[in-house]
User: What shape does this take?
Amino acid sequence: MSDTSGPSEVPPGVVSLGDYERHAQAILPADAWAYISGAGADGLTRRWNREAFDGMRLAGRVLADMTDAGTDTMLMGMPMSMPVLVAPVAHQKLAHPGGEVATVLGASAARAWMCVSTLASTTLEEIAEASQTTLIFQLYMQASREVTLSLVRRAEAAGYSALMVTVDAPVNGVRNDEQRAGFRLPPHVAAVNVQGFPTPSSRAGPGESPVFKGLLDTAPTWSDIEWLRQQTTLPVMLKGITSPHDAERALSCGVDAIAVSNHGGRTLDTLPSSIEALLAVADTVRGRVPLVLDGGVRRGTDVLKALACGASAVMVGAPVMHALAVAGPVGIVHMLTILRAELEAAMALTGCVRIDAIDEEILWPGKDAPGLRS
Ligand SMILES: Cc1cc2nc3c(=O)[nH]c(=O)nc-3n(C[C@H](O)[C@H](O)[C@H](O)COP(=O)(O)O)c2cc1C
Ligand SMILES: CCCCCCC(=O)C(=O)O
Assistant: This one.
């Protein structure tokens, strides 16, 4: 059951993802806001994510025959009603007492897939029970393979359709916003799926690096990805790839999809924008596996631009927390419905009848658009 005690109505005037963000900032405690909105260090990558989308122009096309138009598509062999997924987002009870169950109810009503974080504040089984949509389990690999495998087996048993292994955060980003706000998880929010699991700790002596002496001791490496691929028949997607070299390596491990992601600018600041990284990775991957993009997607036109640059689908992260904070499950379904409606309008106005008809021809003047560093 979803906790129904939090906000559950869309306030008047909320008609875009930006509106949700502004309302969420006004109602959330300052320290929770610092965690949810906090970028790495100076927030440059997060800003570039938006600037890159904003700098790309679309080539409008008129009078196209839109008979049988639709946003339905496929990802990893599975049908989806639109190419927009709920990204894995930790600690959702920070935003709303219903947490991940509220999100999955909203995602199900909007017919959108949802990725469930290893660091969810609800058990992965409870989320699956409330779900009527396709679920992907986001895996942070744990200190031992045995413990990692226990999470994989739970996800399989609960009916998750794929694994998404996040590989870009073996250590936390430099989260200055969180540090300034003194953010700590409140007692009612816990990462219940990994409670009691061993975590890496520093064994650094005076003047030694805690990162290199302890915190990275059990961090996953490519051999762990090769190992994981052998352990499950579920499709495996790697999340957090921005380098074409890493994309090639991921392919050699047999992954089924790649999420091109800079973690919304929350890990290594000054990584390239998500769309720049996508262009580089797509050039290397050349369609051998589907690419999913996240980082800065806030409009249907952003979805269209990402698809034109080689993505098969996109994910939204922070907007999930914004919508959840403002209106719980109703906010989630509304936020996803806004994106769907905006995507439909953008497809209609660029003459794209189906998702697979979206290509770089809809970009003006081609994909070397202003806003993308060459
Ligand atoms: C509050 C918050 C928590 C997040 N937690 C996770 C997580 O547990 N696992 C993960 O792989 N990514 C996590 N992310 C990153 C998102 O999955 C996604 O990569 C990012 O938010 C996309 O950028 P956007 O927020 O601009 O849409 C988190 C993002 C936010 C905002
Ligand atoms: C050591 C990495 C912790 C990441 C915590 C959750 C997450 O991905 C995020 O906040 O972003």
